[in-house]
TrEMBL record:
Region (Disordered): 84-103, 757-778
Bilayer topology term: Single-pass type I membrane protein
Gene Ontology MF terms: amyloid-beta binding; integrin binding; metal ion binding; protein kinase binding
Keywords assigned: Calcium, Cell adhesion, Cell membrane, Disulfide bond, EGF-like domain, Glycoprotein, Integrin, Magnesium, Membrane, Metal-binding, Repeat, Signal, Transmembrane, Transmembrane helix
Name this polypeptide is given: Integrin beta
SUPFAM superfamilies in UniProt: EGF/Laminin (SSF57196), Integrin beta tail domain (SSF69687), Integrin domains (SSF69179), Plexin repeat (SSF103575), vWA-like (SSF53300)
Length: 778
């Protein structure tokens, strides 16, 4: 008891005492009372007529109640809507369960009118009625591995009723069985195997099925034992079973199962295997998702082979919707699997069955006590922009997050309470509602929410109030001008002028009117005062004297004045924040100049220009080489007799120059080609200033000799002749080598030839011999 008192004391301190949050009004773009009260839960509006001064913005009316009263606003002139609560129905808690339906939670209906951002807390009481009716649905796995378990359930049926009667005198029990979908790969689809999926040696075996409802809720133990005794074992192929299919149908088929409206509803799932879930149906080509509807025909789940298994989320939602609390009575081998499942299904417990389910009665009794002794209060789907948090006020509070209140070890007839805090973040256009309930219990609290976003200012009637120059009406302390009049007090007559063109003159570069810091009155900006009491200024109220650079946490280091965002330093100080005394000791160079004339001395340090670098702006590593940039000027000076002739080229960047035979300057030597192609050598000495040099130029230029045209032509002709002769010799050589190759080929073929000596009978000698018969040879 002392612990309870201490907890309540700490809670009160947290809400109303030491830990109380400071009230802050975070406002922005406030032009009306509604803008004010919707900008933060602690913002209040002062509707007093003369609260703001001339030129002061109306947003000054919006602050916390304490600050407004400190500024002189009367308490009765402050508008600050508060949350209101109206209990519509609050039936008292019942002491026990009787003939009428017991009330275990109160109140039952409550209306809240809330201001956005302002939390509102109310109390909900709960007391578990003794002897509350119980409906228990025993859902059993009848796959072949559960053969021994079924025999024990048949034997222990009477004991189940005895255990329930210890809990309540009004108990009913039902029975259902499941195996798995009767398609491959879950079940053997051979016709004989579908009729008898068990082993051949098994005499009593029922045909394969998905889920069968056997017995609706009954108070008769004899009927229960008779129906269970008629059940026989069945079988399937794979290890996981269709338990989620069966639980879904048992949850949504309320008329078939016989669930009573006012009872504690329990499903006892007895199995020794895991479960199939959404997506597993694809293995059998079942793609249609589970629709969470009842599909029972003749006590059989007719869509078992047409619809996929339900997901765990779908099952959890339907169990919660129908106030059903599952008890998973499983064997040791799948205990861890179902423990993980209970984390996703609210108000569920796991008990370990013995190998033959001999301890099922003790398991159910223990699981029921665990379920009923733990009270969890939470809500259904919340409207948009609504937040709900819970705080359990009990001895054995369990912290499971702000979205639920949990009390453990709650005995029957013991009253406990929960603090419910509701917050609306934005204005609601219409009434919204949600319900709060203990998980697994029918009692409901309906919370109806509306928002309080309007200011009830009770403004004086009439459209010509004297406060508004008799040309406007009062709206929560602000003048609302009649047509043709504008201004804070409606004192500017627009007349024939176009109001939009008048307001356009108050905008800089088509921006915000008077930079949001003033009012456009008759075409001119009337600037507001700042929060510190000074005034914005400038044609468009663009300037203020409070946002200059700070140094040492002081505006303008305390050595100057802020003017339109810039520090104007007192004599003897300088710097962007007036943080430095005027001094140039650190900026003096060896020649007595300040930063070599290439920078400004600020805060005793050189701020260099044009890429020159500190500490005294002597060098410029990133600048182009002076040898290149001054080449045109040096070329002109080397050829000219007078410096004046090169003024246009040099632009007065060369103070003095000399033509010398030998260099005297110690600077870097430049060797560049001029426009005539001659190499010119010179040296530059940089003087004080940005672009100021002395120069020394060597008198002698190195110009290359002109080319010998005759020699070039003669050489070219000789080269052409030599190349021509060489080409002819090459061609001749190639022809000769080809002829040699052909001749060698001919000789080789000639050696390979074989000539025949036979006479040709057709051949006739072309020589004819003629004898003179008269010739005697003398």
């Amino acid at each position: 008891m002392d612990w309870c008192v201490l907890s309540l004391l700490l809670l009160m301190l947290g809400k109303h005492g030491l830990c109380q949050q400071e009230e802050v009004c975070s406002k922005s773009a406030i032009t009306s009372c509604k803008d004010c009260i919707t900008s933060g839960p602690y913002c209040s509006w002062c509707k007093e007529l003369n609260f703001t001064k001339g030129g002061e913005q109306e947003a000054a009316r919006c602050e916390t109640r304490a600050k407004l009263m400190a500024r002189g606003c009367k308490r009765e002139e402050i508008i600050s809507p508060q949350n209101t609560e109206e209990i519509k129905q609050q039936d008292p808690l019942s002491k026990s369960s009787g003939s009428t339906e017991p009330v275990q939670m109160t109140p039952q209906k409550i209306d809240l009118k809330l201001r956005p951002g302002l939390p509102h807390t109310f109390k909900v009481s709960f007391k578990r009625a003794e002897g509350y009716p119980v409906d228990l649905y025993y859902l059993m796995d009848l796959s072949y591995s559960m053969k021994d378990d079924l025999a024990n359930v048949k034997r222990l049926g009477g004991n189940l009723f005895d255990a329930l009667n210890k809990i309540t005198k009004d108990a009913k029990i039902g029975f259902g069985a499941f195996v798995d979908k009767t398609v491959l790969p879950y079940t053997n689809t051979n016709e004989e195997k579908l009729k008898k999926p068990c082993d051949e040696s098994e005499a009593q075996c029922q045909a394969a099925f998905g889920y069968r409802h056997v017995l609706s809720m009954t108070p008769s133990r004899d009927v229960f034992r008779q129906k269970v005794a008629e059940q026989y074992i069945s079988g399937n192929l794979d290890s996981p079973e269709g338990s989620l299919d069966a639980m879904m149908q048992a949850a949504v088929c309320g008329d078939k199962i016989g669930w009573r409206n006012s009872s504690t509803r329990l499903i006892v799932l007895a199995t020794d295997a895991g479960f199939h879930m959404a997506g597993d149906g694809k293995l059998a080509g079942i793609l249609e998702p589970n629709d969470e509807l009842c599909h029972m025909t003749g006590n059989l789940y007719e869509k078992s082979n047409d619809m996929d298994y339900p997901s765990v989320g779908q099952l959890a939602m339907q169990l919660e919707k129908n106030n059903i609390q599952p008890i998973f009575a499983v064997t040791e081998n799948v205990n861890n699997v179902y423990k993980e499942l209970t984390k996703m299904i609210p108000k569920s417990v796991v008990g370990v069955l013995s190998s033959d389910s001999n301890n099922v009665v003790q398991l159910i009794e223990s699981a029921y006590n665990n379920l009923t002794s733990k009270v969890t209060v939470t809500h259904d789907i919340l409207p948009d922009n609504v937040r709900v948090e819970y705080l359990a006020l009990c001895e054995h509070r369990i912290n499971e997050g702000p979205n639920k209140g949990v009390c453990d070890q709650v005995q029957a007839e013991k009253e406990i309470s929960f603090e419910v805090t509701v917050t609306v973040d934005k204005c609601l256009e219409e009434e919204k509602s949600f319900t709060i309930s203990p998980l697994g219990i029918k009692d409901r609290l309906t919370v109806t929410i509306s928002t309080n976003c309007e200011c009830q200012c009770n403004d004086p009637e009439g459209s010509n109030h004297i406060h508004c120059n008799s040309t406007g009406s009062i709206t929560c302390g602000i003048c609302k001008c009649n047509q043709g009049f504008v201004g804070q007090f409606c004192n500017c007559a627009v007349g024939t002028k176009d109001e939009s063109s008048l307001r356009a003159t108050c905008r800089r570069q088509n921006g915000t009117e008077c930079e949001g810091r003033g009012d456009c009155v008759c075409g001119a900006c009337q600037c507001h005062t700042t929060e510190q009491g000074t005034s914005y200024h400038g044609k468009y109220c663009e300037c203020d004297d409070e946002h200059c650079e700070k140094y040492d946490n002081k505006l303008c280091a305390g050595n100057g004045k802020c003017n339109c965002g810039q520090c104007r330093c007192d004599p003897g100080y300088q710097g962007s924040a007036c943080q430095c005394k005027v001094s140039d000791e650190g900026c003096r160079t060896s020649d007595g100049s300040i930063c070599y004339g290439r920078g400004n001395c600020e805060c005793n340090q050189c701020k260099c220009k044009g890429g020159y670098q500190g500490p005294q702006c002597k060098d410029c590593s990133g600048c182009p080489s002076a040898c290149l940039t001054k080449l045109s000027c040096i070329s002109c000076l080397s050829l000219s007799k007078s410096k004046e002739n090169c003024n246009n080229v040099c632009n007065n960047t060369i103070s003095e120059y000399k033509k010398v035979e030998k260099f005297n300057l110690q600077s870097k030597e430049c060797n560049q080609k001029d426009s005539e192609g001659c190499w010119i050598k010179f040296k530059l000495e940089q003087l004080t200033g940005m672009d100021n040099y002395n120069a020394e130029i060597l008198t002698k230029r190195e110009c290359p000799e002109p080319p010998n045209v005759i020699a070039i032509i003669a050489g070219s002709l000789a080269a052409v002749a030599v190349i021509g002769i060489l080409l002819l010799m090459l061609v001749k050589l190639l022809i000769h080598m080809k002829d040699l190759k052909e001749f060698k080929k001919f000789e080789n073929e000639k050696k390979k030839s074989k000539w025949a000596n036979a006479d040709n009978p057709l051949f006739q000698n072309p020589t004819t011999t003629v004898a003179n018969p008269l010739f005697t040879g003398e």
